[in-house]
């Protein structure tokens, strides 16, 4: 995108923010949900985060996050520090995802991330009526006031690899979760991008992976994490693997019909935005 257009759009954002605060600036919102690999364990060793933030995960004036207190703030690693409070959080895929989306589309609006992931959780703990599900819906509804939810990024299932029964029931529970969430958010075509497992806590990893890749609901995409480098615990992705995953998730979103529909509408209204 032409540098003059980018500068003009950025000045417009500053003007709108000055008039009505950050809440007045529309965002493309992405829900980050699942368990520890979505919450981020990159760079965490011995219960401490090493503080290393790759270039792809640095803060950006275009990227914000919804805090545990339901306030928009500048997004920075660790994104889930005040959400997944039971364990130490490090680098996850969220910031790399957001920065890749911003880079790929140019000055097309702010990105709002809504961290919801909690380590060690099974798919059953995300079913409608549970605490995790209710909190996800609450945070998503709060976020809608500041923009439009474009997709749910989902990375979960490691805890469902321990028992054969859990692994065999994964597909049905995941499909029910997606349908319930779309219904409760009144977004029947909500894009869900799930990550096929790279690891697991038990021996039924392939059963869960087959369940994930076997989901045929419309507007559900799958990004495979298999082959990404793991930490010595053989369960969590390394920092750079999280970066690679975030970029893969971004490309899956950018290739989606959801994003192309947004781009079409954005191009039509772009002159109106610049004329603010």
TrEMBL record:
Pfam families: SASA (PF03629)
Signal peptide positions (record): 1-23
Domain Sialate O-acetylesterase span(s) in chain numbering: 27-254
Gene Ontology MF terms: carboxylic ester hydrolase activity
Keyword Cell division: no
UniProt keyword Hydrolase present: yes
GO biological process per UniProt: carboxylic acid metabolic process
Keyword line: Hydrolase, Signal
Designated name of the protein: Sialate O-acetylesterase domain-containing protein
Lineage, top ranks: Eukaryota, Viridiplantae, Streptophyta, Embryophyta, Tracheophyta
Gene that encodes it: LOC100793278
